[in-house]
Write a structure and sequence with these properties.
Largest sheet: 6 strands, mixed
CATH superfamily of the largest domain: NAD(P)-binding Rossmann-like Domain
CATH topology of the largest domain: Rossmann fold
Distance between the termini: 28 Å
Oligomer: single chain
Strand content: 5-15%
Bound molecules: nicotinamide-adenine-dinucleotide
CATH class of the largest domain: Alpha Beta
Shape: globular
Length: about 375
């Protein structure tokens, strides 16, 4: 199982697709190109044993195609385990569009992307991710039914981020309980990195429960806005990773738990929304464990968004969405317990349980 994060030149030395470090027996990888709209996208279907592959589309200005490919490989794999650990009957997939979402995203490009999604006849169902808005999914919906996260006016479940934030908050509370004895975040110093769609709502939950919240973001305007709105403090030091906090909540980009950061972190709990927080899930997960830092697996606690969009496929309502999301609290505690009993990291524990479910389903599917 490959799970390391490689960059730039390291990636280019490997075989183009199946030899990539992030390649993990993905079932299908589709390269999409459209000259007229400038669309360059990659759709990754990691595993469809549990059902059709569901996962968002990310639009990002990748430095090169290798980074885009590895991102889609890592993200789609993460979706497989996220769905399995959450108990949803879907597989793992993801798409990336190469480009700047602010300047290069057009309705024509999104429509073309939707046509590519449609060409897969439902093997991949898309949704929004970084760089995407609900209105983009509405455009995709014009050309294919294989899309979730569409607006409520069009019968969809709307923006999944508030539900994701709720799940992250509950996962964090479970981790705080495990580490400090009580699940209340009141009086706990929490650093939220990235106060976008998910991060801001998380700040809301945290401040309402009395946490002492510090925020950081590359968007300065947003920083001041969120600080004023919730009474949060803007991080002022040189290095956020050595900040003197109880909880570090990565809610911006992935791979922030890496060689440069894991040994500096002072927080005793890491619980956030970002996907693929561990640059190398075996190496960095273990270092955190050895340092006594409790890591709440990202793909488990950020599953609120997928639970929300999955409702569009299964036709359940908001109350059921919230009930399923509330399960994240108990599942997180169960994972911690499993990790201790088996002497493995929390990330490995979550992966193992998810993989066991997939293996079991594979046997059941073969009997049908
Ligand atoms: P977003 O784009 O709305 O917010 C991300 C924020 O992070 C932005 O404010 C951005 O300025 C900031 N940021 C980017 N780079 C940064 C850096 N180096 N340092 C500090 N801040 C930085 O995205 P989102 O929807 O809030 O998602 C946040 C993370 O959670 C992403 O990694 C996403 O994949 C993951 N996630 C989101 C959902 C969801 O429902 N939106 C679900 C699961 C996982």
């Amino acid at each position: 199982m490959n799970a390391a994060f490689a960059t730039g030149k390291e990636l280019q030395k490997m075989d183009p697709v199946f030899g990539q470090l992030s390649f993990d027996d993905h079932e299908q990888i589709v390269f999409c190109n459209d000259k007229d709209t400038g669309l360059k996208a990659i759709i990754g279907i990691h595993n469809s044993v549990m059902g059709p592959a569901l996962g968002g589309t990310r639009m990002f200005n990748y430095a090169n195609e290798w980074e885009a490919l590895n991102d889609v490989l890592r993200l789609s794999r993460g979706m497989t385990y996220k769905a399995a650990i959450t108990g949803l009957n879907i597989g793992g997939g993801k798409a990336v569009i190469i480009g700047d979402a602010k300047t290069q995203k057009t309705p024509e490009l999104m429509r073309k992307f939707g046509e590519f999604v449609h060409s897969l006849s439902g093997r991949y169902i898309t949704a929004e991710d970084v760089g995407m808005e609900t209105r983009d999914m509405d455009i995709v919906r014009d050309v294919t039914p294989y899309v979730t996260g569409i607006s409520e006016e069009r019968g969809g479940s709307g923006n999944p981020s508030p539900v994701t934030a709720y799940g992250v908050f509950l996962g964090m509370k479970a981790a705080v309980k495990q580490q400090f004895g009580s699940d209340s975040v009141a009086g706990k110093k929490v650093l939220v990195q990235g106060i976008g769609h998910v991060g801001e709502t998380l700040v809301d939950y945290l401040t309402k429960e009395g946490a002492i919240v510090t925020i950081t973001d590359i968007n300065e305007e947003k920083l001041y806005e969120v600080a004023a709105k919730y009474g949060a403090t803007i991080f002022a030091g040189d290095d956020i990773y050595s900040a003197d906090v109880d909880v570090y909540a990565p809610c911006a980009m992935g791979a922030t738990l890496n060689d440069d950061t894991v040994n500096k972190i002072k927080a005793k709990v890491i619980a956030g929304a970002a996907n693929n927080q561990l640059a190398n899930e075996n190496v960095h997960g273990l270092i955190l464990q050895e340092r006594g830092i409790l890591y709440a697996p990202d793909f488990l606690i950020n599953a609120g968004g997928i639970i929300n969009v999955y409702a569009e496929l299964e036709h359940y309502d908001k109350a059921e969405i919230m009930r399923k999301t509330e399960n994240i609290y108990n599942t997180t505690l169960e994972i911690f317990d499993y990790a201790i009993k088996n002497g493995i990291t929390t990330h490995q524990a979550a992966l193992t349980i998810a993989q066991n479910r997939i293996d079991l389903r594979k046997i059941e599917n073969a009997k049908k």
